[in-house]
Design goal:
By secondary structure, the protein is of the alpha+beta class. It folds into 2 domains: about 140 residues, 2-Layer Sandwich (Fructose-1,6-Bisphosphatase, Chain A, domain 1); about 110 residues, D-Maltodextrin-Binding Protein, domain 2 (3-Layer(aba) Sandwich). It is about 35% helix and about 25% strand. A 7-stranded mixed beta sheet has the order 3-4-5-6-7-8-9, sandwiched between helices. The protein has a 5-stranded mixed beta sheet with strand order 11-10-12-14-13, sandwiched between helices. Strand 6 and strand 7 form a beta hairpin. The longest helix is centred in the first third of the chain and has 22 residues. Bound molecules: D-MYO-inositol-1-phosphate (IPD). D-MYO-inositol-1-phosphate binds next to strand 4 and helix 4.
């Protein structure tokens, strides 16, 4: 089956812009908030509406395309990554920020064909930041090329990390131990509250590493391509190959800094997507 990726790219950009205007309109309004896996794993009707808009829009043009969406999964849909063209969607990454009105929130969407990422788009409509990448064609912020930093050592690297949306005591303990280890060895630690936007900060060279355990495919699929197309690397936090379904990600400006970090991290292995 032939997929016209140029056409898909134009179509998804149109839909993402449309969905972005919903986030922009609602971010400073009151929202009814529900919880999912725990008290800090939030969802609003707008997460669900944005995901529906994207899935309906794509399906009407490409009825045989498949989806892995954060909110469809929360509503019981099975996660299945096959060789078919599959869109992996986080309709609002940084839902907690969206709920509070903190402007670091975005749509993250990737198109995978034969399990290879062809398109990655991360759009923060509030700050008007559109990060885009296509396989083999570079990474861009609002149309201008971006590149990772030249950092090769942890001691002068700025690290993006998150506590995540679970309060499982075992995972929390691992994160806190890693925060201590990294605070002692790196330049600094930062958290934007959106896995996708953290990854974009590495892609544009403003930060040098992003690490997280417990994220899902929809948080990292687009960011992985954007970072690699910006000249960086994505690996498993223990040093092996990156696996979008593993719920583990370590992305960096260079393989040297990624591997240096993999050697010192305390590891955590969540259940796979
Ligand atoms: C979450 C955010 C958060 C990260 C979590 C994600 P959501 O996504 O990206 O920064 O730490 O692991 O689940 O729930 O806002 O889409």
């Amino acid at each position: 089956m032939f997929t016209n990726i140029d056409e898909c790219y134009i179509e998804i950009l149109r839909l993402v812009k449309q969905a972005g205007s919903i986030i922009n309109e609602k971010i400073h309004q009151h929202k009814d908030v529900l919880t999912k896996s725990c008290d800090v794993d939030l969802v609003t009707e707008w997460d669900q509406k944005v995901e529906k808009l994207l899935i309906n829009g794509i399906s009407s043009k490409y009825p045989d395309h498949k989806f892995i969406g954060e909110e469809s999964t929360a509503m019981g849909e099975k996660i299945e990554l096959t060789n078919a063209p599959t869109w992996i969607i986080d309709p609002i990454d940084g839902t907690m920020n969206f709920v509070h009105g903190l402007p670091h929130t975005c749509i993250s969407i990737a198109l995978l064909i034969n399990k290879t990422t062809e398109i990655g788009i991360i759009y923060n409509p509030v700050l008007e930041q559109l990060f885009t990448a296509r396989k083999g064609q570079g990474a861009f912020l609002n149309g201008a090329p971006i590149h990772v930093s030249d950092k090769k050592e942890l001691r002068n690297s700025l690290i993006m990390l998150e506590m995540g949306t679970s309060r499982d005591p075992e995972k929390l303990e691992v994160i806190l131990q890693n925060i201590r280890i990294l605070t002692e060895r790196a330049h600094g630690l930062r958290a934007l509250g959106s896995a996708a936007l953290n990854m974009c900060m590495v892609a544009l060279g403003g930060a040098d590493v992003y690490i997280e355990f417990g994220i899902h495919a929809w948080d990292i699929a687009a960011g992985d391509l954007i970072i690699r197309e910006a000249g960086g690397v994505s690996i498993d936090p223990a040093g092996g190959p990156f696996d979008v379904m593993s719920r583990r990600a370590l992305c960096a400006s260079s393989i040297e800094v990624a591997q240096e970090m993999a050697k010192i991290l305390i590891q955590y292995y969540p259940e796979r997507d």
